[in-house]
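I hope you will forgive my troubling you with a question about protein structure. Could you please explain, in whatever detail you think fit, how the structure tokens follow from the sequence? Thank you for your consideration; the sequence and its tokens are set out here.
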Amino acid sequence: MTRSLRLIRDGVIAFALLALLALIAAKLNDAAQIERAGAFHAADGDSLTLGDERLRLEGIDAPELNQSCERAGRAWACGRAAREALQALVLASGTLCQGSRRDRYDRLLVICRSGAGGDINAAMVRRGMAIAYGRYGKEEAEARAAKAGLWAGAFERPRDVRDHTRQKPAFDGALSFIRQIAGWE
């Protein structure tokens, strides 16, 4: 076979492989949209349950359920307030949540809309009951400017609260181990 024919053959094979990869990538991106409707229960400010299924509102991060924040020099239960705000929003008839991906805890990542068509995830951020987490930057800016919800005082970012909670038991365990070795317990 001549050099030019081999070059053409190799080019055709390379093109065919690229086309096949493009088709596979298109199929992977074409994940089916999953819809959920019904009597949602707010587990916290950014998570819902519907029967046995757990859903996570995509693009937002709300205070942890037992998290406290500060407003006017006083502590307030911002985590519980966020859950109550989300519950009030999903009580509207016709709430529909849609998503196609799951997080590492197997929760369906969703964007929820009220019966009137309003984006519930955006509403949580706009009300200052959640912060933007990859989306909803405009709504967060509005909440900050209005000093709504969390922005009316001081708060620890929910991510930092979770990180602190995860690290504490390991540290406490190490401290306990050192006490045992030293004979202090």
About this structure: The chain has two domains: 1-30, 34-157. The CA atoms of residues 98 and 155 lie 30 Å apart.
